[in-house]
Design brief:
Layout lengths: L14 E8 L9 E5 L17 E4 L23 E6 L7 E6 L64 H8 L22 E2 L12 H4 L12 E2 L22 E5 L5 E5 L6 E5 L5 E4 L5 E4 L205
Parallel strand pairs: 3-5
Antiparallel strand pairs: 1-2, 1-4, 2-3, 4-5, 6-7, 8-9, 9-10, 10-11, 11-12
Length: about 500
């Protein structure tokens, strides 16, 4: 059992200030080695960093710091100034209460104590390496330099515009043209913006809205949108209201991860950024900007529900693939426009039976309660494996500027409940390869030729009339049989 006099507080409270020189705790408890002012020598020869005692770091009451719970390990870097106390009377068990920010006037000097010892020029072999981050203090890749407060640039208003992260975001803000000159936030000639889709303009159909230019028709002008300005303001905003000290609470990690909780009046924001530049920002008006610098993966095991009260605009420069294993249901209460710059291919019934591997027939059904119009610039080719049934309640009109050819293997039946008129501007021919050609009229049959008429039969010609036959010639009427003198076999017989 320890002596009561060995407990902190029994023989007084001993506190210290010091500098952290090592945080690679072999026990991985978040301990750090700290060189305490007035207790430890500055001379590394007398007391090297590896001989300093390990100090425990006190966590707040909001951090359980046990069993993997809470914010572990404690985050203090080499070069941090700390305040703490000794929990033993021998001053060998330091406890760190917190860190002390300041304004460093010079960078780390690893050849003396009270400094970050990590350097390729360090006299201590254990710390003689080029650190991935640091040494601290020093000039950081974020543009945070010696001689300015330890407080993040992002938390000091307009100073944040010199932060590497914010500079990169403004330079790379998407305005549509990847070849645009970067950094000119307010120059309209810099770029045009990200293009949106336009409605198709149908020039060869009876589309009143698209052809009536006086009523606002014709080709639709393309619209554009831009990535919002970082922080919701431009770089030269006056007054500068975002990230104002002391209202912006900024967090920066060594590699460049950033979190901001900005309570600046009139510029309240939430922001988080990955060091690669991927970020999410909630702007003062409630808008959200999300930018992913590489790939995005989203997996929803359950159901996803999305409600958008306003419009949605999507611009995709690459290919879009959708695989829907269930039904795909679309209900559009307004108009549906599609504009396809190249080909459009649809296959209905592309599935296969999982057991037999045979194709599964699929149907396509359409019901249009209004008009249907189409315009095809070139050929139309189709193949139908079964029957085609068309019912036209009104009339059908076809205009063919070229040739019409119909090839039918079976019979052709044309029935009309009213008149049928066929007109040819030049020749009109009816023929059969074999079989009988019949013409029958329910009433009078009229055959008229504007010029000569010839009736030729390679066999007999029989004229039969139930009542009478009348033949009239304006001039000469010739009846001839055979080629020579009349005989009994070669003659013209009247009432034989």
């Amino acid at each position: 059992m320890l002596e009561h006099s060995n407990y902190m507080g029994m023989d007084g409270f001993v506190w210290f200030q010091g500098v952290v020189e090592d945080r690679i705790d072999p026990l991985q408890l978040g301990r750090v080695r700290v060189r305490c002012l007035g207790f430890h020598s500055e001379n590394l020869g007398d007391l090297p960093t590896e001989d300093l005692p390990w100090a425990h770091v006190m966590h707040p009451v909001t951090d359980p710091s046990m069993q993997g719970l809470g914010n572990t390990p404690a985050w203090i870097t080499e070069g941090s100034w700390v305040l703490g106390f000794f929990r033993d009377t021998d001053q060998q068990q330091p406890v760190i209460l917190g860190t002390l920010p300041g304004t460093p006037s010079m960078g780390a000097t690893p050849d003396t104590g009270y400094n970050d010892p990590r350097s390729e020029f360090s006299p201590q072999k254990t710390y003689a390496m080029k650190p991935t981050y640091g040494p601290y203090p020093g000039d950081r890749e974020s543009n945070h330099s010696i001689g300015e407060p330890d407080t993040s640039k992002l938390a000091r208003g307009v100073s944040g515009e010199d932060h590497a992260s914010l500079m990169r975001r403004r330079e790379n803000r998407l305005r549509g043209d990847p070849a645009a000159v970067l950094g000119a936030d307010d120059d309209p000639s810099d770029t045009t913006g990200i293009p949106t889709a336009t409605k198709p303009f149908l020039t060869n159909t009876n589309d009143i809205d698209s052809t009536n230019f006086a009523a606002g028709g014709g080709p639709e002008e393309r619209s554009y949108w831009e990535e919002p300005n970082p922080r919701g303001i431009t770089s030269d905003a006056k007054p500068y209201i975002a990230g104002v000290y002391p209202f912006n609470h900024a967090f920066e990690s060594e590699s460049g991860h950033i979190t901001e909780i900005d309570d600046s009046p009139g510029a309240e924001r939430l922001y988080r950024e990955h060091q690669t530049g991927t970020f999410e920002e909630l702007l003062p008006d409630g808008s959200r900007t999300m930018k992913i610098m590489k790939d995005n993966y989203e997996i929803v095991i359950g159901q996803e529900n999305i409600y958008i009260r306003g419009a949605q605009q999507i611009t995709i420069e690459g290919t879009v693939r959708e695989l829907i294993k269930g039904d795909y249901i679309q209900e559009i209460e307004g108009n549906f426009f599609q504009k396809i710059h190249k080909n459009h291919r649809i296959k209905v019934g592309a599935g296969k039976d999982l057991i037999t591997g045979e194709g599964i027939p699929g149907n396509r059904e359409e019901e249009i309660t209004g008009n249907f119009g189409y315009s095809i610039g070139e050929s139309v080719r189709g193949w139908t494996g079964g029957d085609v049934d068309n019912i036209i309640v009104g009339k059908e009109t076809r205009t063919i500027n070229g040739t019409l050819a119909i090839n039918v293997v079976g019979d052709i039946n044309v029935t009309t409940l009213s008149s049928m008129v066929q007109t040819a501007k030049t020749n009109f021919a009816l023929s059969t390869v074999s079989g009988i050609m019949s013409m029958k009229s329910g009433d009078t049959l009229n055959i008229k030729s504007a010029s000569n008429m010839s009736i030729n039969s390679e066999a007999s010609v029989v004229e039969t009339a139930t009542t009478f036959i009348s033949t009239t010639a304006g001039t000469v009427h010739t009846i001839k049989s055979g080629g020579g003198s009349p005989t009994e076999e070669n003659s013209v017989q009247i009432n034989p």
